[in-house]
Predict the structure.
Amino acid sequence: MLWRHKRMHKILIVDDEMIFRKYLQKMYPWESYGFELCGEASDGIEALERIEQIVPDIALIDINMPVIDGLQLSQTIKERYPGIAIVLITGHSEFEYAKRAVKIGVEDYILKPFDKNELLTVLIRIKERFDRLKAEKSSEKDYNQFMKERLLNLIISNETTGNDETTKQSLENFGIRVNSLTFCVAVIEIDNMYQKWTTANEIILWKYAVCNIAAEILESEENPILFYGPEGRIIVLFEFKRRHEDKQSGFDCFTRLCTQVKNYLKFSVTVGIGNPIYGISAIRDSYMESLEALQSKVIAGVGRVIRYAEIELEYKNIGFYSSAIHEKLGINLRLRDWEEIKKGLEEVFQFIRDKQLSVDYTNAVIMGLISICLSYLSEHGYEIEDVLGSDFSPGKQLRNKESLDEAFSNVEELYLKVMGFSNKNKFTKSRKLIDSAREYIEINYNDNNLRVEQIAQKLFVTSSYLRKVFKKDLNLTVGDYITDIRMQKAKELLGKGNIRVAAISEMVGFCDATHFSKSFKKRFGLPPSEYENSLK
């Protein structure tokens, strides 16, 4: 693992007095506070040249300078580099100077002579704002990735709430452009994944490695979309340029993927590819075909690419049980619905009996059933050995079984054990939804138009369901939770001082400062101004 040093915030000093520049340089142990003095300038023209070269985070600027004064320089900097924070240092205390500085967008205004702590307090406040914005951007990026993956998984499971047009708009909101509406799905599966690794971290690490190789190989293809799907698989969604384009011959990129994974990671992956389809709602059909293609690897062999079009011709007389059964088993495991799980398992067992499958094929089918359980544990962050014991091995579930009935009974016991553990350690769908909603509110609380309908739409659920889940799990309405977050943020801002109540009101998502003050008093027992004074 590579360790990175925490990023220093760069400061440029602009003052025509060399003595004052030297004084500032020696004023603090700058690096101890997370700052780096990256340069200095004696006038406005030199300052602009230096800024173009180094682009500092903060500029300390004296107002009285020749050629271009500090206010003019600040205005130019804000026009060209709006992300640079400016602190003006001056001997002028006139109101007009301060008024102009605020209008330009200067972060703060310090009068000479000033206390060492005064300037340091201002700089640390700016640094904290930069750090907070960076953290928010990172959190928002992670959240957007999670929501994009959630939408794509809803599409392959055909659980989106709108029609093709609304789903297309949702995809485009995440930067996924949809043009021809002709798609094809490929599914990448690590062979014998749960026999190789038993910890969730190991599985995540190797899936990530495969995904990186796939992303690199597929870079030359037309707009492939990679995301993690159910049961530890990696899904690739292609859109063709033209509706009737024959892309099947162009999937040799997956053969390269199989080869590179084998060479570099020393294990094999198999890729199942469905037929091309037209329309977003038909993506699931291609996805289900790709799963059926994967099922055939017990006959066709692992570590290769298998197209559904091929197995339709080669293995049509053998027959494969529906991949939808796996999907239902996964869903019912999450719901902890034993009756439905038992029905699904019996359907698979009956398929094995009716088709009189070979030992190898039977073992592969049973291994698939075991993988659903292990995938469920892994997805929820449970260590397999914590649930099933340190001596558990998927292979042991198949070895030394004297009859099919004994093997089937063993699989049922495994599902009961996993379901029992899940009941004791609930990680419900509603809890995941609440966590997603809370994260969205944390990012968007300053939007005065934030409503439960908007949050529900972003999470692809109905507003009534979101209200119900919040009330049941948190004993709070969504509106109360939004208000609570806004009040906590307002309290933090008031604690920093030097920010007007009206400005704070706007920063935390209130349109009306009076309404904000009433809400704050109701929450904390004091109006904002009195609360701020109590901290001094």
Summary: The chain has four domains: 9-130, 157-312, 321-426, 429-534.
